[in-house]
Amino acid sequence: MTKKIMLDPGHGGHDPGAVANNLKEKDLVLKIAKKTKAILEKVYGATVKLTRSTDVYIDLSQRARLANNWGADYFASIHINGGGGTGFETFRFDKLSAASSTGKQQKIVHDSIYKKIKEKAGDRGTKSKNLAVLRETKMPAILTENLFIDREKDAALLKQESFLDALAAGHADGIASAVGLKKVSSISKKTTAQPKSTLNKKYMLPTGIYKVKTPLMRGDAVKQIQDALAALYFYPDKGAKNNGIDSYYGPKTANAVRRFQLMHGLIADGIYGPKTKANLEALLK
Ligand SMILES: [Zn+2]
């Protein structure tokens, strides 16, 4: 059973959140949320949505409403602190005790994130507060405050892509564990848990440009692209016959390519070319 996870990158648009040391909270939390989404989808097979995936402003009640209307199983709001402290902390709604199920899930997510950064940052603990996104969401919810943007030492960490990766891995592992999701694949090459057939399966990828044309491009090369995307859970048509893997480069395949490109910081044009090929290869090798 998959789970529906709503990730909520705080602030956005005209509301930058905390700003200091050439950093804006709204940019950092969007990055962390996108990285977390990718891991939850790829490694845990979760269904993940973001309340915002671009630099736009959404009010707090709308964020909660998006999660409620979707029927999310878990809600995580991601923030960076400001105001002269240092370290990492998380919040649950203050009407819920640490012993409540939300409190227990908070502890799991909190510990999972902190485990990834404990050599570098302090732990301010699991806290509770009457915050709108925690109060108005109907499902278990957490809000994470990932270091202080106005503390030079914290800001230096937040400028490192590898530190944001660690935060994202902590969020993904913790949320997965809190909602009971197990790994469906591993992006780690060290793994031995996967059956040999999967590990040794070689994904061949064509060189050249593939896109939607009339008549549609078709053949083994297109199928190779579709197989590689499907291996990373970007199905041309999930749930359809063979998940839409049909050797035709149609709009659905272009859409799968576009989703993959979006997730990996490429120009999301739905056209398979050298950059998309390189990114697919790197993930599948
Ligand atoms: Zn914030």
Quick summary of this structure?
With 285 residues, this protein is an alpha/beta fold. It has 2 domains: 4-179, Aminopeptidase (3-Layer(aba) Sandwich), CATH 3.40.630.40; 202-284, PGBD-like superfamily/PGBD (Muramoyl-pentapeptide Carboxypeptidase, domain 1, Orthogonal Bundle). Helix content is 42%, strand content 15%.
Describe it for me?
With 285 residues, the protein is an alpha/beta fold. The protein folds into two domains: 4-179, Zn-dependent exopeptidases (Aminopeptidase, 3-Layer(aba) Sandwich); 202-284, PGBD-like superfamily/PGBD (Muramoyl-pentapeptide Carboxypeptidase, domain 1), CATH 1.10.101. The protein has helices at 25-44, 60-70, 101-117, 132-136, 152-158, 161-179, 196-200, 220-231, 251-263, 274-284; strands spanning 4-9, 19-20, 23-24, 47-50, 74-81, 88-93, 123-129, 141-148. It has a six-stranded mixed beta sheet, sandwiched between helices. Strands 2-3 form a two-stranded antiparallel sheet. Helix 3 links the parallel strand 6 and strand 7. The longest helix is centred in the N-terminal third of the chain and has 20 residues, at 25-44. Residues 10-11, 17, 25, 79 line the site of zinc ion.
